[in-house]
Write a structure and sequence with these properties.
about 200 residues, alpha+beta, 6-stranded mixed sheet, 6 helices, 12 strands
Amino acid sequence: MPHRYNISSEYEKFWQPIADEFYTSKYPKCELKRYNSNSSEDIEFQKKDIDLTLILEDTSIHISEKFRKEDYGDLLIKIYSKYPSHQGWMANSHADYLAYYAKDIVYIIEKHGLIRWFEEENFVKNLSAKIEDFHKKHMHSSARSKIKWVTKSENKIQIDLIQAFNQSGSDQWHTLSLAIAWNDLKKEGLSFKKYKLSNRLS
């Protein structure tokens, strides 16, 4: 059964006002500017993986948002939005922070540090042969594979390689992601904050 892209899009729209409420609860005097229309300006920000700008006095903070239905204790990093032609949001992001919503939890992580670490590990290149083989075995389905990885810091971690088979109308494509445990990211020196959202979101 292919993943329905339009359902994911509607889910994101559902979450946006909840996310806005979270930001304004932390920064009551902030101004929020979302880039969720089809205007040329908004599309340019979307291409840079920026979903909104948080304006605090003279400071503008660009935020990328990701939404997941459950908190699995890991960060899902999309490495290909359409395999193999289009790389995922780690390749083109200009955001300052990633806000990662998972059910009633939101994780906030500094994006530039995450990207530096991801590029130093060189996941996409080092896993290219494994990814190609994995994809060939699951050409018409979603699938998952566990990978053991030793980081540059010599930490032994486990990564989940996840393929989603997507469909929107007659268009079909695969997205490929890596799921990495938050605890493993912490061991690697990446700092993030974890917040509990209001009970009404549970």
